[in-house]
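Forgive a beginner's question, but might I ask you for the amino acids of a protein and the tokens describing how it folds?
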Amino acid sequence: MEKNISAQAYELYHDESARSGYWHGMLLVPVSQKEAFVRYLVTARELVGYPYKISFKKINRPGAKRDLAEAWLSIALGFMRSESKHIRYYYYTSARGEREKAHQLLDDQASGVKFIIFRERDNHANMLQYPDETSKVETSFRFGFKGGLHYLFSEDNPVCVTKIHFDGYLHQGRHIDRQRVVARLSGLRSYCGVVDQPDLIDDRASDPDAEDAQPYADCQLLQMTDLLIGSFRAAFGYYSNPSQWLLARYARTLVDKYKQGLPRMRASRWNRAFCMSQCHLENGSWHFETISLMEDEGVTQLPLLE
């Protein structure tokens, strides 16, 4: 696939969750925004005083982990704006005490980050002809990747993916197969490109303290992807405790805007900032559809962000 020289360069960060289906989370970060995005995340870490790897599934009560997760999700939501529309966005810093310290104005230039949430509904259970579990993950990733690029970008806003980061090959049992993930991307539209380079895929660990870890900045963005996929899953109703439901409000802000219809989304600061869909295999054919919300009437919904 040829690189479109006029396209904006993005790096993609992938994480997954295998509860109630197989969920892929794909964070697309403009190369031009990467340094600033990571700087905000690291500053939040320092303010909270939590230097360790963070994971959504391990957040189950108030404390430093939840404070950091809320700060990161708030920052991510700001960076996911397609444009500011001259509306101020205040992100949560996690600082204790006065409100003006806990919420600060995000730079208007912070924008362009995108997120793909893609679910294989049956957790790959019907994919019987594949050689191993990782090949199933690679295949469903490719579906979500292709569909997400088509939806989030356009002829007027082309994209070139220059790097793909997966969260650690050890739990997959082997390295990611470039052939299955990228080379089989047939029918990719002209405004979507992926660079052809030997080191396109990095599947080392997301914990910077691990022996075989990716660079520190990339570890932060992989952990950010973990929080985003957890927040979206919780927004759809798949969460384990009140702390996870609290963190769902960031994704739920976007999901509820999406539910209001395309005219509402076109007017939103988050137009074409995220993509949500799922697939399943039935009678040998793939079917694609939207993800349904699991409304839990026993839980009082938290106020959404403005």
